[in-house]
Amino acid sequence: MSIQSVCVFCGSRMGARPDYLEGARALGAELARRGFTLVYGGTSVGLMGAMADAVLAGGGKVVGVLPHVLGDREIAHRGLTELHMVDSMHARKAMMASRADAFIAMPGGVGTFEELFEITTWAQLGIHHKPIGLLNVADFYGPLLALMRRAVDEGFIPETRAQPFACEASPAALLDVLQKAGQPLAPDKQLLRPDQT
Q: What pLDDT is attached to residue 162?
């Protein structure tokens, strides 16, 4: 799969550890080094803003997508290559997904989790076939991987979908894996109508 743009979901706060800020800056620098366009939520705050700044500092391109309601709070990043203002969170996620060739989740809160799980569900349903990765800074996603394993053990997720995303602690290693990935998930035919298969 040829990757030219990467959508990153991450925190609008810095988090409690310096590692998170370092990870955001390192990912931004690596995206710029590889010539990948960053697609993200368009804010100037938290890990989101730090990552965007690192891409721009490295000479890279950044596409931000921000709902008007958040732009009104004056958190829009005004230095981006492109900033798209949209009407809703749903429109934001749809545009981000359409502009990206791959997805990465960094540490973050409920919004980051929601974005990660929605894009993973879309892959499971065959809505897209783009690779998904976790940048597992300071083992932030260790408990999530354990929860996925628990859901498999309890019969809620098939064994074949136990880990539907790549997981690496290093931005370079994660991007290497995503570049080599083909389709991350085949459509789960049990979840689709016959006319969708």
A: 81
How far is CA 140 from each of CA 17, 20, 39, rounded to the nearest angstrom? 11, 9, 22
Spatial distance between the Cα atoms of 110 and 185, rounded to a whole number of angstroms: 24
Per the structure, the count of domains in the chain is: 1
Find the farthest-apart pair of alpha carbons in the chain and give their distance in angstroms, rounded: 50
CA dihedral 41, 43, 46, 49 (to 10 degrees): 90
Segments forming the whole domain that contains residue 60: 5-180
Residue 53's CATH number: 3.40.50.450
Rg (CA), the chain: 16
Residue 174 lies in a domain: yes
User: Does an H or E element contain 179, and which?
Assistant: helix 171-180
Global pTM reads: 0.91
Beta bridge partners of 166: 133
pLDDT along the chain (197 residues), means of 10: 93 97 98 98 97 98 94 85 96 97 98 96 92 98 95 93 91 96 50 38
